[in-house]
Amino acid sequence: NAGVTQTPKFQVLKTGQSMTLQCAQDMNHNSMYWYRQDPGMGLRLIYYSASEGTTDKGEVPNGYNVSRLNKREFSLRLESAAPSQTSVYFCASRPRAASGREVRETQYFGPGTRLLVL
Amino acid sequence: GDSVTQMEGPVTLSEEAFLTINCTYTATGYPSLFWYVQYPGEGLQLLLKATKADDKGSNKGFEATYRKETTSFHLEKGSVQVSDSAVYFCALREETSYDKVIFGPGTSLSVIP
Fold first, then answer.
1. Do the Cβ atoms of A105 and B32 come within 8 Å?
2. Taking the CA of residue B52 as centre, how many other CA atoms within 13 Å lie in the half-sphere pointing to its CB?
3. Which of these, A27, A76, B1, B68, has the minimum number of CB atoms within 10 Å of its CB?
4. Residues of B numbered 92-111 whose beta carbons fall under 8 angstroms of chain A's beta carbons: which are they?
5. pLDDT in single tens digits along all 113 residues of chain B
């Protein structure tokens, strides 16, 4: 298994340009997430998708849109990039919670996309 | 809202020193608690977890105990190695939300030979 893969690894954009960050997982996980990581602020959730066909806003959704294309893929789109969106973006996935009391907690993270907006 | 606070870094230790990274949280109910580790140039990996009060999570020589009375989940290791150099994130999952995990700001650890 490749796990969680992200493309591109690095991208430079000019203010106002648009781009889509791609994420795919081959672990048959139901939940997928997009985070951004900024110095001194940890990871902040942008959007998540609990299952194919559903998406929900996280802590910092403004300026972003997402698409859960199928169970494997979850893309993040910046329609008009701004310098404040310079960050490292991580995609993650998690399997469905088991029934009963057991909860499958572990999130599996991709290697990240470094985005610089000038 | 719920939050996670970690000790400020960076932390620099000599090999074989004792490590403590403090983590405290604010949450309603009974959250699940985690430590994630991020090695240079990589994504985060789950290091250990605890899902109820007084549970001890452990992995690779690291330990952390879920202390409800002090709302803490401090990370400890008795003897660090150079290979432990990384950024460590404390995190919690709210009791009422399966999907929302809140991360602390991270603590950078450098271990020197």
1. yes
2. 3
3. B1
4. 93, 98-101, 103-106
5. 788 999 878 999 999 999 999 999 999 888 999 999 999 888 899 999 998 899 999 999 999 999 999 999 999 999 999 999 999 999 998 877 767 788 999 999 999 99
Q: What angle do CA A86, A108, A116 make, to 5 degrees?
A: 10
Residue type, position B15, single letter: E
Q: Tokens 């609990």 — which residue?
A: A50
Residues of chain A with Cβ-Cβ distance to B34 below 8 Å are: 105
What are the backbone dihedrals phi and psi of residue B83, each rounded to the nearest 5 degrees, phi first? -70, -10
Decide if B69 touches A, using CB distance below 8 A. Answer: no
Partner A contacted by B20 (CB < 8 A): no
